[in-house]
Structure prediction request, 199 residues.
Amino acid sequence: MIMLHDYRVRQRDLLLDIARALTEQLDLSEVLRRVLEASASMLAGEIGLIVLSDAQDRLQIHAAFGVDNQNLPAFQDILDDFEAFGFNAERLNLRTRQIAKRLRIPLRQVIALPMTIMDEPLGLILVFRTFSGMTSLDDRQILQSFADQAAIAVHNARLFAAVTHEKQRLAVILETAAMALCCWMATGASAALTVPWRK
Prediction:
């Protein structure tokens, strides 16, 4: 009973840490790192990845846990499978074992958590384990809340980037218009000054 209580306290602490990361306005990479570490901790995962869809709907790795950067390309097969076949546990676990053999890491199972906001898929949290096993409904709900928090962070970051880009575009338009107006006014004033001399 004490162990269960400690586990629930751990779940609460992880959620609070992620909530703080969102309210502290940390950069996106830091929020994703905390979400990924919390997810890997909950699932006793050896390796974790957060992958996001880019403008061409290609999955790209944006955060990693438990794996060196030089080994990240080995996980591309799993991302390609997601793009081609969607979620298929049998295929994903087969790919996981192939990657494990290549990297010499005893991985046996991958758990995928979708990141969506307003029914729009943004990416996935992937946690790789050295054992196979089921997760409880309570754990899945907590883990999905981690994924939802990550999706909110990604959505907000993309909105901010879009607004910033639009502000920069408008600033260029206004600056160009102001320069054109100044040139027109200077040309008009010069013409007005030269007219009497022509008479």
The chain is about 65% helix and 15% strand. The chain has a mean pLDDT of 80. The CA atoms of residues 185 and 191 lie 10 Å apart. The first helix runs from residue 2 to 23.
